[in-house]
């Protein structure tokens, strides 16, 4: 056992906060095992929303997002995380903990956890110069590329957002959002996990700046669209993993929180 370790109530608070992570259709497809060596993250494949590779990708991306939320919540409580990704076939990650004073960055991000929402409404206004560069750097820390999808390449119809390669759909009038894409050099599950961590880092950083976001993977369901996007933006050398719609503000009032599973439902404590 490490010389210092958070007690069970502190870890419960951390995992309760981490559960606010975004997940595809709010499936929350993760399980935790906490023992005296650290925290282990598993995918809960029973909560997969379909049988395709796309649904598998959504599970791993969502697990990456909760992993990053967990590391942020730990950092704000004075614990730095050493993350080992896919240490074992079944284990997505193990998190070893060491005491470390909370830095300003982690406090900013932890504060954003309960404010961030997946906001599907149109966004208004222009982003400040430098915002997207900052978010690119946040994604890069995970070895994940972030770039902007040209405005002419996406469309919205009601709440549905789609990529627009080769069809005449009408674009996104009334929605000033920037569309970002997160992409990885390879399409392994380890890289999908990292893309989920980057998705969390980007959406929390945006919320900390007072911006609004919505992660999207439905629009990447078609292999043809992913390929066209990859060819146009990355010369075919990177795999689009997720889109994030980003804007300064949404139309209407702040959204209410969406419910989450309890820590008791997702976690086994073996302390
Ligand atoms: C990997 C991933 C994929 C998602 N895909 C979509 C999507 O295609 N369309 C959408 O409206 N929301 C999408 N979301 C947002 C989730 O639906 C949202 O996070 C969830 O319903 C919980 O709501 P909250 O983020 O506001 O707490 C996605 C989120 C993640 C993490």
From TrEMBL:
Coiled coil: none annotated. InterPro entries: Nitroreductase-like (IPR000415), Nitroreductase/BluB (IPR050627). Signal peptide: none annotated. GO terms for molecular function: oxidoreductase activity. PANTHER family: NAD(P)H NITROREDUCTASE RV3131-RELATED, NADPH NITROREDUCTASE. This is Nitroreductase.
């Amino acid at each position: 056992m490490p010389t210092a370790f958070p007690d069970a109530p502190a870890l419960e608070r951390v995992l309760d906060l981490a559960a606010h992570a975004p997940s595809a259709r709010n499936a929350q497809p993760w399980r935790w095992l906490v023992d005296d060596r650290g925290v282990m993250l598993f995918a809960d494949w029973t909560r997969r929303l379909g049988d395709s590779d796309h649904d598998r990708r959504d599970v791993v991306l969502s697990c990456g997002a909760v992993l990053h939320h967990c590391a942020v919540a730990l950092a704000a409580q004075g614990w730095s995380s050493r993350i080992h990704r896919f240490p074992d076939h079944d284990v997505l990650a193990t998190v070893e903990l060491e005491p470390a004073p909370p830095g300003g960055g982690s406090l900013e991000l932890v504060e954003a956890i309960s404010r961030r929402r997946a906001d599907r409404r149109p966004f208004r206004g222009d982003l400040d110069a430098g915002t997207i560069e900052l978010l690119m750097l946040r994604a890069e820390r995970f070895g994940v590329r972030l770039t902007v999808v040209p405005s002419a390449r996406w469309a919205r119809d009601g709440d549905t957002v789609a990529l627009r390669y080769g069809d005449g759909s009408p674009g996104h009038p009334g929605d000033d959002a920037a569309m970002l894409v997160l992409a990885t050099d390879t399409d392994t599950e380890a890289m999908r996990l990292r893309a989920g961590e980057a998705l969390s880092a980007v959406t929390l950083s945006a919320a900390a700046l007072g911006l609004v976001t919505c992660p999207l993977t439905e629009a990447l369901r078609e292999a043809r669209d992913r390929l066209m996007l990859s060819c146009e933006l990355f010369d075919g050398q990177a795999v689009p993993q997720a889109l994030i719609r980003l804007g300064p503000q949404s139309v209407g009032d702040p959204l209410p929180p969406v419910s989450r599973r309890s820590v008791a439902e997702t976690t086994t404590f073996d302390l």
